[in-house]
Amino acid sequence: MKGILKNLHRYVLWAVLSAVFWAWIISLITDAPASKKVILFADLDAMDRDGLSAALEEDLPKNIKFVEPQLFVDAMFEPASVTKGDMFVVSEAQAEGVLQDLAVIDRAVFPGQHFYEFDGKAYGILLYDEEQGVRIAAKYLAYEPGEIYYLFFNAKSGHIAPWNGDDDAALRAARKLLTLE
Fold it and tell me: Which of 12, 25, 135, 147 qualifies as a FRET site for 97, CA 20 to 30 Å off?
């Protein structure tokens, strides 16, 4: 018993490293490549990931396996993973700082929507504004009261054809998102 207690720190370290290793292996096995999924990052405190994912997956191209909603805090230890996102839910206050990485939206693709505009170009689609009574997908996304939120697209996304990429999966998911309460 004395030997076990003396080496307890080694056993604990082995158990922690083993758990991290197997979590990484399972992640590699179950995750799909970027070309097979649409990633939605949200600058929010919380969201219903499973419910939102299921709702957005109704009208995707056959080559797309799923929509993966993530919070920005999920990428805290790997900030570069945010650049792999296809769509972003960002507050108006944060938007101007990231415009250089966002796609300019063709207004004809999303008729009847209110847009985030900069220099006469549309970059984002209004999702939440209490004053205007806009509360898109509020059942799934925990918006901060008093803030205004928009949906933006990554200019480098492979899922925003015909603007960029091979398919329009992110645009389809966005159209579905705009119908959610």
Answer: 135
Q: Could you give the angle at which helices 169-177 and 49-56 cross, rounded to 10 degrees?
A: 110
* Total count of residues recorded for the chain: 181
Q: What is the pLDDT of residues 137-162, one digit of tens each?
A: 999 999 999 999 999 999 999 999 88
Q: Which CATH entry fits the domain spanning 32-177: 3.40.190.10, 2.60.120.10, 3.40.50.300, 3.50.80.10?
A: 3.40.190.10
DSSP characters over 33-94: PGGGEEEEEE-SS-B-HHHHHHHHGGG--TT--EEEEEEGGGGTT-GGGGGG-SEEEEEHHH
Which pLDDT score is estimated for 113? 96
Strand partners, 159: 165
H/E stretch holding 5: helix 2-6
Average pLDDT value for residue range 98-111: 91
Domains in the chain: boundaries: 1-30, 32-177
Residue 102 near residue 158 (C-beta atoms within 8 A)? no
**Which pLDDT value is given to residue 1?**
62
**Torsion angle, CA of 58/53/175/133, rounded to 10 degrees?**
130
Which two tokens mark 139?
Answer: 């059942």
3-class DSSP state for residue 41?
strand
Mean pLDDT score of the chain, rounded to an integer?
Answer: 89
pTM: 0.83
